[in-house]
Amino acid sequence: MRVYAEKLVTCVAVALQVVGSRAALRRFSFKLHSASNSPDGFEREVYLINGQQPGPLIDVDEGDDLDIFVQNDLDVETTIHWHGLLQRGTPDMDGVPGVTQDPIAPGGNFTYRFSTASEYGFFWYHSHFRAYYNDAIRGPLLIRPAASRQRPFVDLAGNSDDVVALLAAERDAANILLNDWTHELSDTIFARYNRTGAFPSCVDSILANGQGRVQCLPEAILESGPGLGIESEISTSATGPSISTATMPNMPSMDMLDQRGMHDMSMEAHASSETTLASTSMSISHPTASSMMPDMPGMDTLSPRGCMLPMMFKPGFDISSLPQETCTNTTSPLLTIAADQSRGWLALNLVNSGAVSALRVSLDGHSMFVYAADGLYTNMQEVNVLHMELGQRYSVMVKLNRAPGKYYLRFATFPSGDMQQVLEGQAIVLYNTSKASTTNTAEDLVSDWMYINGSAKSDAALLDASALSPFEDNLSPPSGPADKTLSFLVNQTDIVSWVIDRAPFEEPSIPIVYGNISSGWDSTTTMHLPINSTIDIIMGISNQSLDKMGHPIHLHGHKFWVLGSGVGTFPYATIADAPSDLINLENPPYRDTTGLPSQGWVAIRYLTDNPGAWIFHCHLQWHIVVGMAVVLVEGGDELPALVGQYNPPPTTAMSDTCLLS
Ligand SMILES: *[C@@H]1O[C@H](CO)[C@@H](O)[C@H](O)[C@H]1NC(C)=O
Ligand SMILES: *[C@@H]1O[C@H](CO)[C@@H](O)[C@H](O)[C@H]1NC(C)=O
Ligand SMILES: *[C@@H]1O[C@H](CO)[C@@H](O)[C@H](O)[C@H]1NC(C)=O
Ligand SMILES: *[C@@H]1O[C@H](CO)[C@@H](O)[C@H](O)[C@H]1NC(C)=O
Ligand SMILES: *[C@@H]1O[C@H](CO)[C@@H](O)[C@H](O)[C@H]1NC(C)=O
Ligand SMILES: *[C@@H]1O[C@H](CO)[C@@H](O)[C@H](O)[C@H]1NC(C)=O
Ligand SMILES: *[C@@H]1O[C@H](CO)[C@@H](O)[C@H](O)[C@H]1NC(C)=O
Ligand SMILES: *[C@@H]1O[C@H](CO)[C@@H](O)[C@H](O)[C@H]1NC(C)=O
Ligand SMILES: *[C@@H]1O[C@H](CO)[C@@H](O)[C@H](O)[C@H]1NC(C)=O
Ligand SMILES: [Cu+2]
């Protein structure tokens, strides 16, 4: 079978003008189906939407209402979640199985209806069932901001023509989904993880809008390890991702950690894992006995795909239980992003829509002016390297002031604790050169800003996510104490069990949003919060956790303020108890996904102004699949009026084969 080409029901956008309002009803139709595709030159089974990888762009205006019909022609269940959208008044449209709806059975359908009132920016959508978005059920969602909103990037304009050029660049922005990619179905990978305990953090390639190639590392780098064997200076121009410049007393600063190299941290994590594991029935296996000795040669050696070998296995399994790892270079085409130099500016809407890997992103020879984070306009930051946690989005403006030519947009996996893979992918920004002449190599060798292991070079400005304050007024948090504080200690309690708070989340058979008829309503992983209240969530990593890696954390139904984060423990019961230099209540970032640093903490605040049952979870797919989530219910009394009575899914939604047999 070749690349899936048949055009199925394509996106029909029917703009029905609503009388007396500028909001339109926009209809889309999604057909989910299995197909065969080779996005990186390796053919495999994929799950597509309308034959496309990534799925169709949902492109609407602020205030529009959406009606999205989803027909599930897969032979597995699914749901679709609209990442970052608030679902105000429609908490049953959030797309989370067991929380807001029943899974859509094979052969079944579900229509999502919700409004985009007061929301704008770059979002994405994806399956929220098992890890099926890894199989390609994901796509971009753009809500074009109302013309009346002020744009942060107009400050970049030298004159009024430039304002027009910047606005045009935003309007014509390239929407780019970046994601790590593997050559096996997610169910196959999960089954192996569940059986052997070997964490599947190693991927085959990184795609940009469904295009990429397998690029195996040269032997010399595989032998040198994550440090690449290069003498280097690492950027100290900004602190690490989502980590405030304030650090705990007696804690190493992020700069020190960065210079020390993440690999050292991973060795600590292994060592502590081992001591923890000694008293359990689990085992740690190493390729060679000497590999735990920090200064022995060879300990850094990478697998053919550029990965550190998995360290933990279930009893009875070791590295030989896994399929022999191989890497074969491919030469499939890279994504080309056209840019016209005469237009002056190029805008990119970027999302890390991957399964396991945080990404570092840069554009050779150019700065990026970050003007939106998770959709929302921010005060601008000029950077050379972005750090993107899973689920996060950034919109950037690029000045097209270089010689016409080809420039690499690079994206590299970035380690979190012991999850280490050296892998870089590229797309090509092409300006004023005809597409036909593309040779897929950047001819203009201008400065690149990062190493292929994702570390920023010394002259490169790395994004400081903690400084991304909202651009618009009135987006500061309430400054007083919280009405309620939740303190969570993330814990890997077992080799295939990760928890946010004590117990793994398990999907109840009736969705929690339908109230106490759901067994999940009173579950230990469901918390009932007071409505119209200020909630703080302080997250740390349990010192008993088998692994102390960092996690990308996402809350549904809200944007939240990131009040602070850092390395080490946060030894305060509430935000009010913490010293003010650790906490930003004045102009903190306001977003829907943030990073909990490896062996660190993060504190967020939000307002319970949106009745619903909202899942709060790690976005790393193998973690949420094994339960790394809790459900935060607010306005429980108001839910029946919003979602109506629970109707069990019709049994006729079973697949045809069931009916025939
Ligand atoms: C959607 O599924 C229902 C059964 O749940 C069925 O009655 C309906 O015809 C389906 N709609 C479409 C457009 O296939
Ligand atoms: C994972 O493995 C356990 C047994 O170790 C089994 O009970 C469970 O069903 C498996 N989960 C999945 C989703 O396969
Ligand atoms: C893949 O290509 C790179 C760059 O040309 C080369 O260094 C590497 O050895 C190749 N690896 C394999 C396994 O062919
Ligand atoms: C990446 O490679 C550079 C250059 O050798 C090295 O200094 C840095 O520590 C490495 N980063 C990581 C995360 O290993
Ligand atoms: C770049 O190409 C566009 C047409 O694609 C043209 O209008 C413009 O003048 C060119 N700019 C330069 C600097 O060559
Ligand atoms: C973390 O998990 C371990 C292993 O199950 C358990 O002994 C410990 O009490 C847990 N710690 C926390 C803070 O939940
Ligand atoms: C379930 O909630 C309803 C109202 O929402 C209440 O009347 C009923 O008593 C509750 N049942 C249980 C078992 O708590
Ligand atoms: C919460 O606040 C909203 C908006 O101010 C108000 O309409 C609603 O009645 C409040 N709910 C409660 C339970 O106080
Ligand atoms: C682990 O955390 C617990 C509770 O936060 C604390 O009491 C204990 O001292 C810590 N242990 C170590 C070894 O840091
Ligand atoms: Cu996680």
Automatic annotation (TrEMBL):
A GO MF label:
oxidoreductase activity
Q: Which InterPro entries does this one have?
A: Cu-oxidase-like_N (IPR011707), Cu-oxidase_2nd (IPR001117), Cu-oxidase_C (IPR011706), Cu-oxidase_fam (IPR045087), Cu_oxidase_CS (IPR033138), Cu_oxidase_Cu_BS (IPR002355), Cupredoxin (IPR008972)
Q: Where is the composition biased (Polar residues)?
A: 233-250
Q: Which Pfam families match?
A: Cu-oxidase, Cu-oxidase_2, Cu-oxidase_3
The protein's name in its UniProt record: Multicopper oxidase-domain-containing protein
Keywords for this protein: Copper, Glycoprotein, Metal-binding, Oxidoreductase, Repeat, Signal
Alphabetized PROSITE patterns for the sequence = MULTICOPPER_OXIDASE1, MULTICOPPER_OXIDASE2
